[in-house]
Amino acid sequence: MFLNNLQTIATQVLMLYLIAGIGFVADKTGIFPQKSSKKVIDLLFNIILPIAIIHTFITMEYTPERVKGLFIAFACAVGTHLFGMAISALTFRKRSSLLEKGIYHYAIVLSNAAFLALPLAKSVIGEEGVFYCSVYVGVFNIFAFTYGIHEISGHKAKIDFKKIIFNPGTISVLIGIPLFLLQIKIPYFISYPMELVGNTNSPLAMIVFGTFLANADFKHIFIKKELYFVSFLRLIFIPICMLLIFRLCGVTGDLLVALTISSSAPTATNTAMYAAKYENDTALGSEIAAQASILSIVTMPVIVALAYVI
Q1: Cβ proximity of 246 and 256 under 8 Å
Q2: Which of 55, 183, 235, 263 could form an SS bridge with 299, CB 3.0 to 4.6 Å?
C-alpha cells in the first residue's frame, strides 16, 4: 500500500513540477520573465486564490465530521507553526546578523502552502483537500504577517496587526466558513465563473513558481551546508514530527493527509520577495526556496505516502 501511494503521489508531484517547467522555459526564453510574474502573483494572491478557497467552501456538503475537521485543521496548523518556531529558535544562534538569522528562521517555519500544498492537495485528495488546506493557508498568513516579517526584517519591521485579519487568504477563509456552515446556495451563474477562475490557481501558481526556479543560482544552492540544514528541518524533521503528533492526537483520513501535505511543503517562495522588501539578502532567500523546492520532489511523496499507512 505504501509503494502504491508513493507512486500515486510522486506522479502528482511530478505533474505539478512539469507545469513549473513551463514557467522555467518561459522565463529563460524571455516570454514570461520573473519580473512579469510578480504581477501574476498579485493576481493569484489577491483574487484567484481567495475565489478558489471560497468556491471550495460553498460547494462542500455540510457534515458534523467536516465541521470538527475545520477546528482540528486550525489547531494543527497553529501547532505546526509554533513547533517550527520553537525548532528555529534553537538554530543559527551563533550568527551575529539578525537579518541572516531571520531569513533562515523564516524559511524553516513558513511553507509554500498556497502555491504548492494547495494544488497538490487538490490533485491527491480533491476538493476536501483544498477545504482543509485552506485553513492552513489562513493560519500561514497570520504567522507570515507577524512572526515572518519580524524575523526577516531583522526585528526591525513593525507588526501590522490589521494584516492578521485583513489579508486575502484569511478573509477568504472567514467568508467561506459561514457560507459552509449555513449551506448558503450561490446561484449557478456566479458559482460556475468562480469555479473556472479557481481552477486556474494551480497551473498559474506552478508556472510562476517555475520562473523563480529559473532565476535560482544553481551553482550555490547545492554548495552551502546551511541550506541543507534548513531544507532538512523544513522538508523532513518538522513534517515527520508533526505527522506523528497528528496521528497520536487521533487525526486520520483525508484530514491527516491534507495537514501532512501542508506541513511538508518546501520553503515559501515569498521568502525572496519579503527579503527584498525588508532589505535582507534576496539571493539567499531565492537559494533556500529553490533548494527546498527541488528536494521536495523526493521528500513530499515519501512523507505524504506515510500519512496513508501510519
Answers
A1: yes
A2: 235
- Interatomic CA distance for residues 132 and 260, integer angstroms: 11
With b for 16 or more beta-carbon neighbours within 10 A and e for fewer, the 46-68 pattern comes to eebbbbbbbbbbbbbeeeeebee
Assess contact for 164 and 86: CB atoms under 8 A: no
In three-state secondary structure terms, 143 is: helix
Closest by CA position to 72, among listed 262, 264, 259: 259
One digit per residue, the tens of pLDDT, for the chain of length 310 reads 788 889 989 999 999 999 999 999 999 999 999 888 888 988 999 999 999 999 999 999 999 999 999 999 999 999 999 999 999 999 998 887 999 999 999 999 999 988 889 999 999 999 999 999 999 999 999 999 999 999 999 999 888 778 888 889 899 999 999 999 999 989 999 999 999 999 999 899 899 889 888 887 787 788 889 999 999 999 999 999 999 999 999 999 999 999 999 999 999 988 988 888 898 988 888 899 999 999 999 999 999 999 999 8
Give me Rg for the CA atoms of the chain. Answer: 18
Helix spans in 183-252 (H): 188-198, 201-214, 218-221, 225-232, 238-248
| Residue 183 backbone class (left: φ over 0; alpha: ψ -120 to 50; beta: rest) | left
Cα(163)–Cα(140) distance, rounded to whole angstroms?
12
Q: How far is CA 293 from CA 142, 227, 266, 273, 290, in A?
A: 23, 12, 5, 16, 5
- H runs (alpha helix) in the chain: 2-28, 34-43, 49-59, 64-89, 98-109, 118-124, 127-143, 149-152, 162-165, 168-182, 188-198, 201-214, 218-221, 225-232, 238-248, 253-264, 270-277, 282-309
pTM of the model: 0.92
